[in-house]
Write a structure and sequence with these properties.
The termini are far apart. Helix 4 runs antiparallel to helix 5, helix 5 runs antiparallel to helix 6 and helix 11 crosses helix 12. By secondary structure, the protein is an alpha+beta fold. The strands form 4 sheets. A 5-stranded antiparallel β-sheet has the order 10-9-8-7-11. The chain contains 12 helices and 14 strands.
Length: about 550
């Protein structure tokens, strides 16, 4: 059966609205209706049912009007060959230009049909869907004769210019009426929206929290109602127009039936899919409940309320994520057979395509995730620790699955991919600190003429003056290098709770005290390079240590 698609494939602009969409719908349906189907030729056609590689049934059409169905090869020819012979015979009989009288001659096992006395085809008992029952062949022959007589009458009508003109006149009149009704439908939609929105504004005090949602809902409701009425109007107009012409009359007679069949199939498909959808929703709800219980358990582990031998606070969060992924994958695998269309070839093809795209495009994502899990389970980083990764130094504020965020203390937040962190050394300034927050260390280079014990004492004095330096454990000073012109000394200490929250501020305070102590003792810091001893030590004199700038005095240009 030739089917008429009633849904457009593209949408016009919002300004055209439903009226433009309705016009597009009508145009597409009319274009498809005016094109003969693959099984309907200009005069006659053959519709074949091929289930096992060879034709088993053949349906004969006369100008799109189904006439008979052949299923038997009792006469020595296959159903398809019989249909082709019937096509040739009907064409010859109609070409003779007779009155178009359809008769039949009944026999025991076959019935012959003639047009103006010329045989066109035979109907046998094997052509019936339920052969063997008495009286069935005669009743079927009566239906075939009636359809053939109607098809022959329509064949003659197709050549009657008066009937064609009447059909065109009715078509134009029906199109004008449909146009006016469509315009009234759009006006009615706007009027209904105005009335409903006005009623909504009168009760907006009660519906104030949901006002925006109510407006959107009313617009959607009126649009859906307009669409439904517009489709009904289009279907009525199309059915009426198709029935005005002999060539398209069979399509018009079947358009309403086809629309009802499509609607019935659609509703039946929804009804048949509801049990499976209910099972799938229940599976997903159960998975949701399990993941919530899983999250509550691991939150207790992360807070220290619960403990397991193989699980601690650092690995609780990544373990929760892994368990949730396994739960949802298991739920998806269980719910997959209950999803509508899961057994169709299209659904399977889309699933394979989606899996292929994920496997090709998610390799970098999987690498990032694996690096993130490796960092979490190796415990090389923890939130709140002060670390240095490459050129980035700061406090870890988030250890994510794909990236780690670090606050540098300079007003910056650096996001490092976990693959980058996993591929280079990580310096942790907080892991070995006892009761503090991070390690403080700095290096100075002093000439060989300065006693090393004096340098030690000055560095320790600078550490003692810095409020954020812990005295237990005590700071230490070591000689890390004996260079060509100077000795490199390194001060190592730990911070305490009095130190600044940002390590850069604590280091700034320590450096300031180092400069003060060395200036007070007249010792020159020889960094970065040493060439020769200057005539006077390059230190700040005691009277200039506390000198402040004078912003009120203008700067004098160098002459």
């Amino acid at each position: 059966m030739h089917s008429l698609p009633l849904h457009p494939d593209r949408h016009p602009s919002r300004r055209q609205g439903v009226f433009g969409e309705w016009l597009l719908l009508v145009w597409l349906v009319w274009l498809l209706a005016a094109t003969p189907s693959a099984g309907a030729q200009s005069l006659t056609g053959v519709s074949r049912n091929n289930d096992s590689g060879s034709p088993t049934t053949a349906e004969v059409f006369l100008h799109n009007r189904p006439v008979a169905v052949f299923r038997s090869d009792q006469l020595g020819d296959s159903p398809a060959e019989r249909a082709l012979l019937a096509q040739q015979a009907m064409a010859e009989a109609l070409a003779a230009g007779g009155p178009g009288l359809v008769t039949r001659s009944d026999a025991v096992d076959a019935i012959r049909f003639e047009i103006d006395g010329q045989p066109v085809f035979f109907l046998t008992g094997g052509d019936l869907a339920t052969p063997g029952e008495p009286g069935v062949l005669s009743a079927a022959a009566h239906q075939v004769q009636r359809r053939l007589q109607l098809a022959v009458a329509e064949h003659r009508e197709m050549r009657d210019l008066r009937q064609i003109g009447i059909g065109l006149a009715y078509t134009l009149a029906a199109s004008g009426v449909a146009w006016v009704l469509a315009w009234l439908l759009l006006r009615g939609q706007r009027w209904l929206q105005v009335q409903l929105l006005g009623a909504l504004r009168e009760h907006q005090g009660l519906l104030a929290p949901y006002l925006q949602h109510a407006r959107s809902g009313l617009r959607w409701l009126t649009t859906a109602l307009t669409w439904a009425l517009g489709l009904l109007l289009a279907e009525l107009w199309l059915t009426f127009v198709l029935r005005q012409f002999a060539y398209t009359r069979p399509w018009g007679e079947r358009s309403t039936t086809w629309l009802l069949d499509v609607a019935g199939s659609f509703i039946g498909g929804i009804a048949s899919a509801i049990p499976g959808l209910v099972v799938a929703v229940m599976i997903f709800l159960l998975a949701r409940v399990v993941t919530r219980a899983n999250a509550l358990f691991f939150e207790r582990v992360a807070s220290g309320e619960a403990s397991l031998g193989w699980l601690d606070a650092d690995t609780a969060e990544p373990t929760r994520r892994l368990v949730n992924v396994v739960i949802w994958l298991f739920a998806l695998a269980m719910a997959y057979p209950y999803l509508p269309g899961s057994n169709s070839e299209a659904f399977k093809g889309v699933s394979v395509l989606a899996g292929l795209m994920l496997s090709l495009g998610a390799s970098g994502v999987v690498g990032q995730a694996m690096s993130g899990f490796s960092l979490m389970y190796s415990r090389s980083l923890r939130v709140g620790e002060y670390v240095k990764i490459g050129e980035t130094e700061g406090t870890v504020v988030q250890l994510g699955l794909f990236a780690t965020r670090i606050h540098t203390g300079m007003g910056e937040e650096v996001s490092l991919p976990n693959t980058v962190i996993f591929s280079q050394p990580v310096r942790n300034f907080s892991r070995l600190v006892q009761g503090g927050r991070f390690v403080l260390h700095t290096a100075v280079t002093i000439g060989y003429s300065t006693p090393w014990r004096q340098v030690h004492a000055m560095l320790l004095e600078a550490a003692r003056r810095t409020p954020g330096v812990a005295q237990d454990p005590a700071p230490t000073v070591v000689q890390t290098a004996l260079s060509d012109y100077y000795v490199e000394y390194r001060l190592c200490a730990q911070s305490n709770r009095a130190a600044a929250s940002r390590r850069v501020e604590a280091m700034s305070a320590l450096h300031a005290n180092v400069l003060d102590v060395f200036n007070e003792n007249g010792v020159q810091i020889m960094s970065p390079n040493y060439r020769s001893d200057p005539p006077e030590p390059q230190v700040v004199s005691p009277q200039d240590i506390w000198a402040a700038p004078s912003p009120s005095e203008p700067l004098k240009p160098n002459v």
